[in-house]
Amino acid sequence: MATNEQMSRLLYALADTLLIQSPHTGPLSPALIPLTEGIAVGTADMVKNKKKGKRAVSAYNKAFGKAFKRQKDKMTKKNGMWKKGCSPGKCMSAAHKETKRLMR
User: What is the pTM assigned to this prediction?
Assistant: First the structure.
């Protein structure tokens, strides 16, 4: 399946070939002129995707990441398994509590 960019390039290439006049075909037929209005030769390069800007990381998010790592170190065993009574959810809530305390 073609992407949007590939399809637009294909359509622009088709329009460009319609606009090119060869000695065998002569000028464009009146039926094709409405189809090619507003299409300039070489416009395929103008079709590009805009890149999104990077997400700004908040101070809370940075502090939460550090707090989560500290809490996870406390709640996991050496082999990486969770200690008894600990879970990812409890680790998250403890990290949020710690972050709130630090951000005061």
Answer: 0.50
